[in-house]
What does this fold into?
Amino acid sequence: DLSPKTAVLLRSGKEVTVPIEQVHKGDQFVVRPGESIPVDGVILEGASAVNESALTGESIPVDKAAGDSVSAATINQSGFLRCEATRVGEDTTLSQIIRMVSDAAATKAPIAKIADKVSGIFVPAVIAIAIVTIAVWLLVGQTVGYALARGISVLVISCPCALGLATPVAIMVGNGVGAKHGILFKTAVSLEEAGKVQIVALDKTGTITCGEPKVTDILPAENVTEQELLTLALALEQKSEHPLAKAILQYGEEQQLTASAVSDFQALPGNGLTGVLNGSKLCGGNYQCVAAVAAVPDEMQQQARTLAESGKTPLFFSRDNQLLGIIAVADVLKEESPEAIRQLQHMGIQVVMLTGDNEQTAKAIGKQAGVDHVIAGVLPDGKEAVIRKLAAQGKVAMVGDGINDAPALTRADIGIAIGAGTDVAIDAADIVLMKSRLTDVPAAIRLSRAALRNIHENLFWAFIYNIIGIPLAAGVWIPLFGWKLNPMFGAAAMSLSSFCVVTNALRLNLFQLNRSDRDKKLKNAVAAIQLEQQSAKSSDDSGMQVTLHIKGMMCGHCEATVKKCLEAFPEVDEAIVSHTEGTAVVKLNAPADLAALKKAVTEQGYQVKK
It folds into this structure.
C-alpha cells in the first residue's frame, strides 16, 4: 500500500500519467517536488534533496544530481527530476524488502501452550483414574452405588476448568493492562514470550533519537554575539529546503527571531549557501565552503572536529571575509532513551543499536544512550542478518519504526514497533508502543514477566487442588482416617479452584508496569554477545590501500554516500570515510582502477582533489 500507484512517463515528448504496472525498464519518468519516486531509477537531469527515510530510516535527505540512483517510495523534496527506470515491479528495493518480510514471517513457528499439552494427558488420565477407582471399590466388596459415588467424585473434583482458565485469563488481563498504558500485544504468544527476551536490538533514528535534526550548539566567533550569528544564519537559511536549514529556522522561531530577506541567493549542492544582505555577502555550509572565503582559526576548526566526533554536523557561517561562527545540528536523543536502556540492562538484557548511519555518528549516539553494542552502516537486509546472528545467541527483540526495520522486526523472536512509525513496521511487529516512548520497551517486558509469573501461579492452583482432591475423592484415606468426600463438596472444591485462578489473574490489574525498582535479572542472561561490524567486509588489513582527498562532503550522510559507491567495487574491502578530514581511506584486496574510483565519487556530486 505504501508503493506509488502511478508514474508520470515521458512519451513522444509529452507527459503521460500511467498505472505503476505499465512502467518498464528503460522508460523515462519525471518527478516534481513533493512527489514519490515511482520506481528505482537513475537521474538523467535535475538536482534535488531526496527523503529516503522510508527505506533507510535516516531523517536527513540525501542530495541527488544527474547520474545518482533513486529508489521507489522515496520522496523528492525540492528539485524537478527526469529519470530512467532501472528496476520495476518486484525488482525494486521496496518490493525486495516486502518479500523479505513475507519470507521471514513464513519461517516463524508458533509456540505451543503448556496448558494445551497438559490437557491432552490430563483428561484421559482422570477418566482412567475414575474407572480404576470404581473397579477397586467393587473388588473390595462395596456396593455399586458406593463405588460410583467415589468415581463420580474423582470426575467432579478434577474438572479441567481451572487448568483451561489458567493461561487465557492471565493473557486477557495482561493484554488489557498493556492497552491501558499504550502497549498493544498482538497475540498471546507475544505477551508470553516478551518476558524471556535476552537481547534487545534498537533502531537509532526515530527510536533512540527524535528522528529530526535540531540545533544543539551555537559557537560565535570572536567579537560576534550568539544573536548576531543566529540572525544572519536565519536570513541565509530561510530560502533553503534542506532539513539542516529547517532545524535552524525552527530554533530561530523558538527564540522569537525574525529573518531578514537576502538577495542573490544561491545553493551550492553538497557545500552550502550564499546570499547578499545589506551589501554584505553571506556564506554558510561546510568547512570547505566557508574556508574558501573566510579564515577559520585553528581553535574553531578543533571545535568543529569535536562536534563531528560527537555525531553532530557543524555548519560554518561568514559575512564578507569574516567568520561569524559555527551552528551545530544533530538528530538528538529522546529524553527517555538513556533511562530506558539503563532499565533494560538492569534486567540483565544486552542492548544493541542498529543503524544505517555512519560509524562515527552511530558510536557518538550509542555512547550518549549507553548501549552495550553499536552496529553502523547496515541496510535493511543487513539488519535482518544481524538479528539472525543475535538469535543464535539468545532470544531477541527488535525495536524499530521504519520500512527498513520491517524485515528485522519480523525475523526477531519479538518485534516491537514504535507507534509513530510506518504502517508496514507496525504490521510486521508483535508489539506496538502507541505512545512512541522507549521506556515502554522495558515496561512491556516487565508486564510480560508478570503475566508469565501469574500463569505459573494459576497452573499451581489448578494442579494443587487436583493433587490434594483426587486421592481424597477416590477414597485413598478412608481406610486410614475415614476421610470421605461427598460429590457435592467435590463440586464446590472444583469451583473454588476456578475462583482462585480467575481472582489471581485479576490481580494483574494492580501491577505497576513502570516501576523498575523491583526488576530482577534474567537467570539465563547472555553474558556477552559476539558481533562483527557489518560495514567491514574483511578483517584482513594486510592488503593495499589508497587515500582519496574529497571536496564537498558536509555531513555523515555524505560519508555514507561515498562509502556505498566505493564499496560497490569488488576490489574494495572497506572504505573509511570522514567528512571532517575530507578523506576516504580505501582498503583494496586487488589492484583497482583509480580513475574508476574517482569517477564513481564524482558521479555522486563530490570532487576528488587527489
Residues 440-474 form the longest helix (35 residues). The chain is about 40% helix and 25% strand.
